Every structure is written in structure tokens, then in C-alpha cells.
Amino acid sequence: MAQRISRAKQSIKTSGIPFSPPTPQEQTQRLRSVLHVLYLIFNEGYTSSSGPDLQRLELAHEAIRLARAVYASLSDDPEVTGLLALMLLTDARRVARTGAHGELIPLMEQDRSVWDQAEIAEGIELLTAALSKGRIGTYQLQAAIAAVHDEAPRPEDTDWPHILALYELLKRMSDNPMVTLNHAIAVAMVHGPRKGLELLQPLDDDARVAGQHRLPAVRAHLLEMAGDREAAIAQYRLAASRTTSIPERNYLMTQAAKLSEG
Questions:
Q1: At what angle do helices 57-73 and 78-91 cross, to 10 degrees?
Q2: What does the alpha-carbon distance between residue 212 and residue 175 come to, in Å, rounded to a whole number?
Q3: Angle CA(201)–CA(204)–CA(209) in degrees, nearest 5?
Q4: Using 50, 70 and 90 to split pLDDT, how confident is the model at 20?
Q5: In a 10 Å sphere around its CB, with 0-12 CB exposed, 13-18 middle and 19+ buried, how is residue 145 labelled?
Q6: Contact 224, 259 (CB under 8 A)
Q7: Measured CA angle at 101 (ends 85, 223), to 5 deg
Q8: Across-strand partners of 98?
Q9: Domain at 161-262: CATH code
Q10: Residue 216: exposed, middle, or buried by beta-carbon count in 10 A (0-12, 13-18, 19+)?
């Protein structure tokens, strides 16, 4: 590492590149890159992509710490504020996401009494401040969705039409297959699982999710909602074969086994 730093310093010296503050355009571009990296770090900490543990708390906590540091310097930026709010509103559910043996507990089955109300309150306060700026971005919209979930005292109290409306806005701003997946779930909760399944079909040809487990996992869930048990079992098993996360694999196989026994 020391040699790399030394070579980098020498390259800068010989290139004659001047050191100067970035232009406003350069700063905006660099800030967006920083926020994206923090977002990815938090996501990997909140739901680990591989290994025996569902969560990597050190990554999630470090992402929140760094997001707070950025916010301390740029509190007027609504997307900086929105990202910190998103992290807090999501992290608030952390304790309820796993059982006594580290097994995955889905959102709709979590014990909401153990959600961190202090984090929820802080996240909502930050989100309210960000939205008041009048410049809506993707992190603010995701934080708003998380807030709707967090404010529901029971799963059946979730305001799915509100969540669907937020995902409609998010889809217009972000060409991301994960957004499409979550949008399909919201559509299914409002308009029925068959409508949600229709929205998943274009993703079969999307290279960004090809071979990943999330598409068949969502499809399995919606097929189960629709009462198509055999198709749901097949999709749960397909999703389980594709994930490298042991808790996720165990959960998907358990869902398939429950449907088979039924």
C-alpha cells in the first residue's frame, strides 16, 4: 500500500496536475459517487450477499457513521440528508430481522415492538427536512418508503397505496431492476398478485438480474399469494440455488418445504 501511494504521488508530481478545489459540477459528481458507495456499503451490511450471517453489522454501522460525517458538512444537501434518513429508518428494523438462531424473519412477520423508535424518529425528522428543500431524489424517495413501513404498527396497517405511489415516482427517476422488483410487490399488494407477476416478465431478459436469486424469490412470493403452489415451490427452490447467503437460502428452502407439506 505504501508503494502504491508513493507511485501515485510521483505520478501526480510528474503530470503537473494542479491541486485546486473542485468546481461545483465536479463536486456534485464526486458527492454522488461517495453517496452511492456509502449506500452500497450499508446494503451489504444490512443484507450480506454471502456467508453464514444475514447481516454484517460492522459495515452497516460504518456506513451510518460516514453518512453522518458527510451530513455534518453538507446538511443542506437533500440527498445527503435523505441517504442518512434511509439508513436510519432501515437500520431501525435490524434487531427484528433475525431469530434466535440467525434465521431470516421477513418484514411482514417481524416483531415491530423491538424496532428502534429513536432511529425511526430521527430518520423521519431528517426526511421531513430533506423533503422541505423541494429537490426530490432517489434516496429521499427510498427513505419515504421505509418511513411508511416503519410507521405502520401492524403489517396490515401498512399504507400500500402510498408505497406504490412512491415507487411510481422512483421508477421514473431510476432505471434499476431492484426498484422494478419492489414496485411489482407494491402493485401486487394493491392490485393483486397477478398484476405484480405481469410486471416481472420484462426482467427475465434483463442481464442485470439474470442468474440472481431475487427475481425468482419475488416471483415465488407472488405466485404463493396467487395460490399457484407448485410454481411457487419451483421458484423458491430456484432462488435458493442461486443465493450465496446461507440464511436466505435456508429461508427460501423452508418456504418451499412449507408449501410442499401443505
A1: 150
A2: 17
A3: 125
A4: confident
A5: buried
A6: yes
A7: 70
A8: 104
A9: 1.25.40
A10: buried
Hunting for cell 416471483 — which residue is that?
Answer: 219
- Using the structure block, give the residue that is written with the C-alpha cell 456506513: 63
**Interatomic CA distance for residues 183 and 95, integer angstroms:** 25
Backbone angles phi, psi at 126, to 5 degrees: -65, -45
Q: What is the pLDDT of residues 26-38, one digit of tens each?
A: 888 999 999 999 9
Cβ atoms within 10 Å, residue 34:
16
What is the CA 244 to chain-centroid distance, rounded? 18
State the DSSP H helix or E strand holding residue 66, giving kind and residue range, or none if neither.
helix 57-73
Rounded to two decimals, what is the model's pTM? 0.92
431478459: which residue's cell?
205
Which residues are paired to 50 by β-bridges? 244
Other Cβ atoms closer than 10 A to 38: 23
